[in-house]
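Extended Data, panel c. Modelled sequence:
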Amino acid sequence: MAPTDHITSLLSRTHPSPTRQAPPTLKDLTAFFASHPDAPRTLIISCADPRCIPESIFHLDAGNPSDAAVVVRVQGADWVTAMPAVLSIDHLINFNNVILLKHTDCGSTVFRDANIKRKLKERAAKDVDHGVIDAMTFGENEISMQDSVRRDLKLIRESKLVSDGSVRNHPPHLTQRVRVGWVNNLRALGEVGDLGDHPVITG
């Protein structure tokens, strides 16, 4: 399928079905959380890879505020990259749960910031200050995915910017095995390490 044909195909799917129910408005959500202070306000930081889709993995119900979650998807589920988006939404919602969802066979373990910067400089030529490109980071992972999870968990736990202590102290850390579809709760496995097949565990 040609790229333009794919766009046409995607747009053709946007017509709402007769049975569609509109999701809550932002005002409705704010009122719900104000009247239900103990309701889960869950954040999922996930990779942008189309094989790793939290809404499908966890069967989220966007129409139910108690079951819905805010999903922030960035390359490699990288905390530093996701942080501005997380903090802006946290300002409105005050998250009390967070899931860090990374996956095997991730592109962030393959690309390198230096190569991306070189290509951007070639593409921009003299139209963009190369200093701007040099200051960019792209979330490369020169470490294992397990160590990437360790690193980001440490950053989340030590952050004084995230609103709720339970977010910093008890974030589930999950790794999806894309070829077999299992999700590993690395805490339940007794530390980041063993990535054997296990069913989805979110607690």
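The radius of gyration is 19 Å. This feature is highlighted in the accompanying rendering.
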